[in-house]
Design goal:
The complex is a heterodimer of chains A (about 120) and B (about 300). Chain A has about 120 residues and is an alpha+beta fold. Chain A has a single domain, classed as 2-Layer Sandwich (Nonspecific Lipid-transfer Protein, Chain A), CATH 3.30.1050.10. Helices cover about 45% and strands about 25% of the residues of chain A. Chain A is built from 5 helices and 5 strands, in the order ααββββααβα. A 5-stranded mixed sheet of chain A has the order 3-2-1-4-5. Chain A is globular, with a radius of gyration of 13 Å. Chain B has about 300 residues and is an alpha/beta fold. Chain B has 2 domains: about 120 residues, no CATH class; about 160 residues, Rossmann fold. In chain B, about 40% of the residues lie in helices and about 20% in strands. Chain B has 12 helices and 15 strands. Chain B has a 6-stranded mixed sheet. A 5-stranded mixed sheet of chain B has the order 2-3-1-4-7, sandwiched between helices. Chain B has a two-stranded antiparallel ribbon with strand order 5-6. In chain B, α3 runs parallel beside α4. Classes of the chains: A alpha+beta (about 120), B alpha/beta (about 300). Chains A and B meet through α2, α4 and α5 of A and α5 and α6 of B.
């Protein structure tokens, strides 16, 4: 089990890597979205905000998210540190994403663009 | 008579059956859609296994080739592996040979494609041979894979960048449920209106729109100005649709039988049946030689 602090740290790493990637920022200029990340086994909520291609992170939940990413703390930390891709936990049901299918696919592509081989 | 059947995840409304002669041998070629129902497709494949000469898998890719690398779509593999006896193909082998040739023929014999022609490929990782051939010819190609598959308005402009991005994302995308990355079943009969509007400019700016017909159709806006469509698997209804949208010319890479241009999977299955050797042993040279003997030519239709 990962702690809330570890999830925060992993999301900071994700945010930093995303924002260092100029190409990703160009790709997502049109995609303003609020993404809530919620752990199921520890008290841990975060909000990632994509605005004009740039991602920012804050602790706590946002009221009207476009996407909500839900999983156990260990899986969330692994995904956002880039140790695993979201595909397998998503396919086996241990990662749930609430939102439109188009947004889910796009979020998956973004994580692969950051962490892919 | 040899029998070749294409089992497709696409709509059953496109089902068709023709009798043709290939190198003097009679063939019955049929297409059977399963409306996006994966289990129905598996059932049909098992039913046909051992009873026909070759099977094509339609509405899904099994293998994507990016230069020398091959990526296997997991859902496609599951379908392929349900067939134990009959040779089964997905068309990727033929795409990699036939479609390169088609681009060269069009450049040599028509004025539809030349250096500097603006081409939109709605998806290119499923047709890397065509993508490379267009690029080698000096066309101004926009590879629309991110745009039309992921909704990311990022036109890829070089084969090198296409390859780099494909290597990052394909190993994982190949594991996703296929319906998330490609329109299957009923989705093939409708358009994604939001994306049609959002991405219309890419279609309007192009002189040639190339690639998978279901993707081309799903995102095609009205008011085209005589663009050339380079694709296959078109029906008479599709031709009417293209006319209505303002396309000027339709080029299909596979031959027309009774008003239909079948998918590459069907044609590859027929060629494997002609060759009579295991698919794993078939080489690109086998296909090229056979295509020449059969005098396969792209069909150019003024709309």
């Amino acid at each position: 089990m990962a702690t809330h602090e570890e999830i925060t740290e992993s999301l900071m790493v994700f945010t930093e890597n995303y924002n260092k990637n100029e190409r990703l920022k160009i790709m997502n200029k049109d995609w303003n979205r609020i993404v809530v990340v919620q752990a199921t086994d520890v008290e841990s909520l975060h909000t990632l905000t994509l605005l004009d291609g740039v991602v920012s992170l804050k602790e706590g939940k946002s009221n009207d998210p476009d996407l909500t990413v839900i999983s156990d703390s260990e899986t969330l930390a692994d995904i956002f540190y880039g140790d695993i891709t979201p595909t397998e936990p998503y396919n086996n049901g241990s990662l749930r994403i609430i939102g439109s299918e188009d947004d889910i696919i796009r979020l998956d592509f973004i994580s692969l663009m950051i962490w892919g081989e | 008579m040899k029998r070749v059947v294409s089992v497709s995840l696409g709509s059953a409304r496109r089902d068709h059956r023709v009798q043709v002669e290939l190198l003097g041998e009679p063939f019955e070629i049929a297409r059977r859609g399963t409306d996006g129902d994966f289990d129905r497709a598996v059932g049909l494949l098992k039913e046909l296994d051992g009873k026909v000469d070759a099977i094509g898998l339609g509405g899904i890719d099994v293998f994507l080739f990016v230069r020398q690398k091959r990526f296997a779509i997991q859902d496609g593999l599951r379908l392929m592996e349900s067939v134990k006896i009959t040779p089964v193909v997905d068309g990727s082998g033929l795409k990699n040979t036939l479609e390169r040739e088609v681009v060269r023929i069009l450049a040599r014999e028509t004025n539809l494609i030349k250096k500097g022609t603006k081409v939109l490929m709605v998806s290119s990782v499923d047709r890397f041979g065509m993508a490379e051939a267009l690029s080698e010819l000096g066309c101004d190609v926009t590879f629309g894979d991110l745009i039309f598959t992921a909704g990311i308005p990022y036109p890829i402009k070089t084969v090198e960048e296409l390859e780099e991005i494909a290597n990052k994302i394909l190993p994982e995308i190949a594991k996703m449920p296929f319906h998330m990355i490609y329109p299957t079943g009923k989705k093939q009969e409708s358009q994604d209106e939001a994306k049609v509007q959002k991405f219309a400019g890419y279609y309007q700016d192009a002189e040639v729109i190339a690639g998978d017909f279901h993707l081309i159709r799903r995102f095609m806006p009205s008011g085209l100005k005589g663009q050339t469509i380079l694709t296959n698997t078109t029906t008479p209804d599709d031709i009417g649709f293209l006319k209505e949208k303002g396309a000027g010319t339709l080029v299909t890479t596979t031959p027309e039988y009774e008003g239909r241009s079948f998918g590459t999977n069907v044609m590859e299955a027929a060629l494997v049946a002609v060759l009579g050797k295991p698919w794993a042993e078939v080489t690109p040279e086998d296909y090229l030689d056979l295509l020449e003997r059969l005098n396969f030519r792209p069909r150019v239709l003024n709309l």
